[in-house]
Every structure is written in C-alpha cells, then in structure tokens.
Amino acid sequence: MKNTLLTLAFASLAALSAKAQDAEMAQAVVNYKFTHLRDTTQKDKPYTEAMVLFLGQTSSVYRSYDKKLQDALMRKQMEQQLAEQRGNSQINIKGSSTRPLTRSEIFQFAAKNKMVRKEPVIMTTYLIEEDMPKINWKITADTASFGSLHCQKATGRFKGRDYTAWFCPDVPFHAGPWKLNGLPGLIVEAYDSKKEVEFKFESLEEVKPSEKPATTEAAAPAPGMGQGGVRMFTIGGDDPNADPNLIALPKEGVRASPKEFANLEEARKKDPQGFAKSQMAAAGMQVAPSGGGGTTNFVSGSSAGGGGGSVRSVSFSAGPGAGGASEINNPLELPEKK
Fold first, then answer.
1. pTM above 0.70?
2. Where would you tag: which of 107, 162, 202, 278 has the fewest CB atoms within 10 A of its CB?
C-alpha cells in the first residue's frame, strides 16, 4: 500500500500542470460497500450494493460494480441464446435479471468545478451537467485508520443529511463516492448521522492497463437473418468493447438540464410503456404487442412488404426475479428543512 500511495502522489504532482481532460485513464480505483435504508419500516433490510470510484488525474467516475457484473452476465446469456437460435426468423431470449441496480454514474471534474450525471434511459444516454456541489466541511483533529490509510475526520451537511467523512491527505485525489467532494484528499469512508446512508471503504487499488475486450462473436451477422444480422445491445448499458478503466463521457450522450431530465423521468413514471415505445421508435425499432408473462417483443429490419428485406423479431423475457425498485420512503437526497 505504501508503494501505491507513492505512485499516486507522483501522478498527482504531474496533474498540477496538466489541463483538465474530459477523457483519461484511471490511475486508481476505490471499492465501497454502499448501504441505504430505503424503507424505514424495514430497518433490518437495508439496500446494499458494491460501488467503485475510478480516479484519474483531473477527473473521477463513481458507478455500480454490481451493475457491471449483471450486464456482463446478461450479455453472455444473450450471446449463447443467439448462437443457439441462429438462422431463425424469430428469436426468443430469456433473461435472468435479479434486481434493479444503480444505472446512473457520477463524473466529477474538479479542475472545471463541474459534475456530470450519466443517466441511461432505454436506448438513450442523458448527460446532466451541474456545478460541483459545495459542502461546508468542518475538519476536526480526530484521526482513524482504514487499513494502512491514515485519515482525518470532517463533518458537513449535504442534501438534507449530516455527514461524517474520513479523508486521507496522503492520497492526493480531491474526490469521493457519489457526489461527496471538496476535501483535501480522498474521501475514504462516509456516513450520515443516522447511519441510514453509508459508503464503507473496502479497498484502494492501483489500476493496471487492461486489454480492450474483443468484439463478441454473437454480434456478427447470423445466417438466415438478413443483411446486418442481429444487433447486440444492452438496454441502458455501455459499450462492452470500451476500456473499463477509461474515464470518459459518451460521445453520443444527449445533454439535458436537471429540470429537463426531471420532466423526462416524470413522463416515464406516468406512462412507462408509452415512454418505452417512443424511445424505441426514436432508435429505429418497433415494439410489438407484449406476449404476456413479462415478455416484450422488439421488431427490427424492414417491415413486411418493404421491398424484399426480412422481418426480424426478438422477444425478451425478463424471467423470475425481475421487477421494479423496492419501496423508497427515505430517498438518498432529502429536502432541507426550512
């Protein structure tokens, strides 16, 4: 760990003269166990999720590790079933999604004083840019160790909660989990006064260069499926061929203000099916009537009688365990008391 700290400190010195970048390779990654008591009527059943914070010289991104694993599993299932049904004019894919996980990702650009929230919605990825939240931290003389990391204590109020944060001045990245920021060092662990929200430190690791994953074979055209074959994608997911250690905003992301995205979310809540159909249509896909039992049918390619092209339909069944989010009467962000 000592060598890790020295390496990170050296890298940070180089960043002092570097210009802020929108895309850069991560140098370190912090693993957190995120705990949130979403339903106060079930205090013995808090929501938990493995999260990661990728740290670059001038930026960071906080995302769900569990979501990445779930996406990889679902993609593998789709690849196997596409291979087994190659040549069919209609493909039936059964998934085994277990639970809804955090889709949003938080990018911090400290040098620019900007924060960007990446929100995948059906076939579109929205980018919501805001100024970096300002937290009035009070640094105390209290210290504690997390593994070999020697940390100082700070307290501050943010989004309706009183937080305690432990930061490490020896790790010179001014970042933290979620939207927490603004301390002279890495925020290693944080929790609110009621312990309803907690970002528990698991580990700090140096990032080793990774090989770019090869394009999946299942994405190739399948015999008998017409020109173009079956296009592989994960709804709300990332490009599986992208380097996982790259901190970069998607080029195809749609910029939206916080108000615009809030209105979009409200429209989705009012009419989920209609919203999904409009999103699919905008992406050039048709949504056929549901087959029942949690099955959704997607039709791509040319329509019947459209000039000789074949109609390709794909039905996806989420399978047992899939469903909406659990009851939330205690959101992560609370309104400030007046």
1. yes
2. 162
